[in-house]
Amino acid sequence: MSTAPPPSSPAGIAPFAPAPVSGPLNGQVDSHTPQGALSCRAHFAGGLLDGVLLLYDESQRPSQRALYRRGLQHGRTQLFGDGRLLAEIQYCDGLREGLSCTYDEAEQLSSKVQYVAGRQHGAASYYYPDGALARSAQFANGLAHGEQRDYSPAGQLLMSTLFVNGKRHGAQTRFHLNGARQEVVHFKDGKPDGEPVLYNEQGEPVGAAAGGDAPRRSLLARLIEG
To answer: Where is this region: Disordered (predicted)?
Structure first.
């Protein structure tokens, strides 16, 4: 077993960097803090990361566990904060591939996103802390593409929005809590196309909203999108 500087680490990890080792690294390689605590344990083959990489925080708890193959992340990577699982990400030859999940401070699932060749592609789901679905969306080649649905904590559909190549395109519909339409806005290439139409709780049109401006984003949208 040899000692060498670890690979790049996430924020908050400052591993000790001892003198370089001559020749390509092979086998298990440990790095330690100046106080002697283990900060990184990695496996190498021919100088490339190959196998399990473990990073540790100041309390000696894992902060990252990753799998490598011939120097590239390949397989499942887990990220931790204060000992709690924060994310699970699948990689293939260095790129995100397949399902990626994030978790909140209570380790409850907060999002599920599909990736293909490093880009969001396919279904994405976001959740409230109690596990209820907050948003479902579709992506293609890293861009929102298809229907996005926002839900209340009780499961009622709040809004439906159509996207094409990352831009709102088509109808965006907001709903009353009884399920009836509340407002319909049409978009073209990301910009409002015509005036929004308002509806009462019986689903009857009651007039047009002030035109010309993009509709206000829902609280849920502001929380998710920032």
So the answer is: 1-30
Residue range 153-166, pLDDT digits in tens: 999 999 999 999 99
| pLDDT score at 224 | 52
DSSP state letters, the chain: -EE-------TT------PPPSS---EEEEEE-TTS-EEEEEEEETTEE-EEEEEE-TTS-EEEEEEEETTEE-EEEEEEETTEEEEEEEEETTEE-EEEEEE-TT--EEEEEEEETTEEEEEEEEE-TTS-EEEEEEEETTEE-EEEEEE-TTS-EEEEEEEETTEEEEEEEEE-TTS-EEEEEEEETTEE-S--EEE-TTS-EEEEPPPSSPPPPPHHHHHHH-
In this structure, are 97 and 45 located in the same domain? yes
Residue the block writes with tokens 């699970």: 88
198: domain range?
128-209
Its pTM stands at 0.78
Query: Does a structural domain hold residue 78?
Result: yes
Is 3 within a domain?
no
pLDDT at 202: 92
For residues 87 and 134, state if they share a domain: no
pLDDT at 2 over 70: no
Q: Residue 208 has what pLDDT?
A: 63
Domain count, the chain: 2
Instruction: Report if residue 16 sits inside a domain.
Output: no
